[in-house]
Specification:
Blueprint (H helix, E strand, L loop, with lengths): L7 H7 L1 H9 L8 H10 L2 H7 L4 H15 L1 H7 L8 E7 L4 H19 L3 E7 L3 H8 L11 E5 L2 H4 L5 H5 L25 E13 L12 H4 L8 E3 L4 H26 E4 L2 H6 L11 E5 L12 E4 L5 E10 L4 H11 L2 H11 L18 E2 L3 H5 L3 H16 L2
Parallel strand pairs: 1-2, 1-3, 5-6, 5-7, 9-10
Antiparallel strand pairs: 3-9, 4-7, 4-8, 4-9
Helix pairs in contact: 1-2, 2-5, 12-17
Length: about 400
Amino acid sequence: MINGNITVLELSENHPEAFNLFVSKGFDNFNKETTLKSAGKFLKLETAIKQKNYDIKTFLESLNEIDSNNDAKVDITLRDSKKDGDITVKGLLPCPVRLPLLEGIDAFAESITEKTGLSVAHDLIAASAGQQWLNDNVVGIRAEDVPDVFVSAGFDVFFDERSFGKHVRNGMFKDMTGDTHSYFSHMKDPKGNYGMIGVVPAVFLVNKDALDGRAVPKSWADLLSPEFEKSVSLPVGDFDLFNALLVHIHKMFGEEGVVKLADNMVQSMHPAQMVKNAGRKNEAKPAVTIMPYFFTKMLFGSKSAEVVWPEEGSIISPIFMLTRADREDVARPVAEFLYGKEVGEILSHRGLFPALNPQVDNNLPEGAKFNWVGWDYIYKTDMGALLEKLDKVFNDALGA
């Protein structure tokens, strides 16, 4: 983990992706090998950040987020998961809050063991590297292998008949979350199968230098207009959020909207890369980047960048929680912890992933709304088949 006590040289040698962001925020002099090997050998990271009057905590969180994405595949094999126990918890954790959540879960597991004598086994990996893990652990999962609690963001694995969808239909799960904020009340599953602990909102990062006379887009409809053809960067690599975009755009605008989204895409880039380039004039740079709200923390006052919360509401990737009804005696304490104030504040305050727990102040921008596809739509739709279809529509429009 990157902390303020390491030197700039150590950052460059051990965390190259994070070092690229560091350099882009006004430390260009360390691109010179002589400066890096001389001043960088002694200059502590915290001291350098203070010199630029940046918020140290926010800057370090941003560096660690990039570093965790870069190391995610290694993390799968090296992280010490506790896979054997009386209570089983599995899933994917959002990268920006993965470490504090794991610390909290470990402490919670110890308290459960002290109180009950039961051990808690957890296999919780970084969401950015989760596709292979999902294929290995969820696709085709048998009833006897379903964990007591499963938590992750996204749509496909939760509704697809090839994974959890068939078990939901057979009544295996029960929503064990509690009351919610009034602005999230429509996201509570009326059938009581699915729980939701938080959301990953998508917002616009607008590069005003690349607008070329165009007005700042304020809505999803604006973003799909011909004005922004080949001008938008999409989080294609973030399959949870990208699938959420496809589903919601289809709900609002039909297949034509998905085609327009493809027409307007100029490139796919990790949000951290887009933030790193904020303020740089570049012909290939998109005018608008759709990104998780979390990454707006990394802008550090860029004058050319504007964050827009869409008028129709931010499209969200839900952070779902499935809890086994037949194991309620052991699943409920875990569910109450994951839905509780402590975890909610980690999600909301450290990751900018608004939590549904009403005890958590999500500090949302004024007028912020959420665009939710709705439970009626979900229960009437084969979501697995829909996502396959929309992915094909999108890629056909790209000519891929």
